[in-house]
């Protein structure tokens, strides 16, 4: 009974032969860098548009809603300007320098474009975007578990309607509309 390459792939990726990958260590996305500069490996990025049917990426930054709320992943390698590359959107990121962190540390989007901080998000008014955890702190063989979660502002929550803010406003529930206003 000879085994072919196709059989080996099926046994690893689709053991029940239903056409769906049974498990994967990471999810990736092909992207385009049109920022005017190279984007370093391990940079936190968000989608800022599209070029040639490819999503454009830009360095994410916790300082504004526009640069934090669309955070999608980390660059797997350096992506030169006007070239395509790959980002990890979830899963295990291997072979990254995590020597500035400790094993098990939580990682958050920083107020430095493309960067991360450990332990807690930057102080308000910066936006809270959880990036993941350090699985292994090491200068070359580091590992990050990528699990991006964007924090929300009050007016982005369901059942909340904020039309304009004024100093010392109070949030109240309105039964007739079913909204907090």
Q: How would you classify the helix and strand content by structural class?
A: mainly beta
Percentage of residues assigned to helices: under 10%
N-to-C terminal Cα separation, in Å? 70 Å
**Helix count?**
2
Order of helices and strands: HEEEHEEEEEEEE
* Main pleated sheet: 5 strands, mixed, barrel
Q: What is the alpha-carbon Rg in Å? A: 20 Å
Q: What's the number of extended β-strand segments?
A: 11
Kindly report the average pLDDT value. Answer: 87
Q: Give the amount of beta strand, in percent.
A: 35-45%
Structure description:
The protein has helices spanning 5-13, 65-68; strands at 26-33, 44-51, 54-59, 71-75, 83-96, 106-109, 116-118, 129-136, 142-150, 173-174, 179-180. It is globular and about 55 Å long. It is built from 2 helices and 11 strands. The strands form 2 sheets. A 5-stranded mixed barrel has the order 1-3-2-4-5. A two-stranded antiparallel ribbon has the order 10-11. It has 181 residues and is mainly beta.
Layout of SSEs?
Elements: H1 5-13, E1 26-33, E2 44-51, E3 54-59, H2 65-68, E4 71-75, E5 83-96, E6 106-109, E7 116-118, E8 129-136, E9 142-150, E10 173-174, E11 179-180
Parallel strand pairs: 1-3
Antiparallel strand pairs: 1-5, 2-3, 2-4, 4-5, 5-9, 6-7, 6-8, 8-9, 10-11
């Amino acid at each position: 009974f000879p085994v072919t390459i196709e059989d080996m792939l099926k046994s690893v990726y689709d053991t029940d032969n239903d056409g769906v990958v049974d498990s994967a260590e990471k999810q990736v996305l092909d992207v385009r860098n049109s920022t005017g500069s190279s984007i370093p490996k391990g940079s936190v990025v968000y989608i800022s548009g599209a070029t040639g049917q490819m999503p454009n990426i830009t360095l994410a930054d916790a300082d504004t809603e526009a640069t934090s709320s669309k955070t999608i992943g980390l660059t797997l390698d350096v992506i030169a300007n006007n070239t395509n590359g790959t980002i990890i959107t979830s899963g295990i990121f291997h072979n990254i320098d995590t020597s500035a962190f400790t094993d098990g540390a939580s990682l958050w989007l920083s107020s430095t474009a493309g960067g991360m901080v450990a332990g807690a998000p930057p102080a308000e008014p910066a936006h809270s975007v959880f990036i993941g955890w350090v699985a292994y702190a090491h200068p070359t063989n580091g590992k990050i578990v990528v699990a991006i979660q964007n924090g929300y502002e009050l007016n982005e929550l369901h059942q909340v309607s904020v039309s304009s803010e004024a100093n010392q406003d109070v949030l109240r529930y309105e039964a007739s509309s079913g909204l907090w206003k």
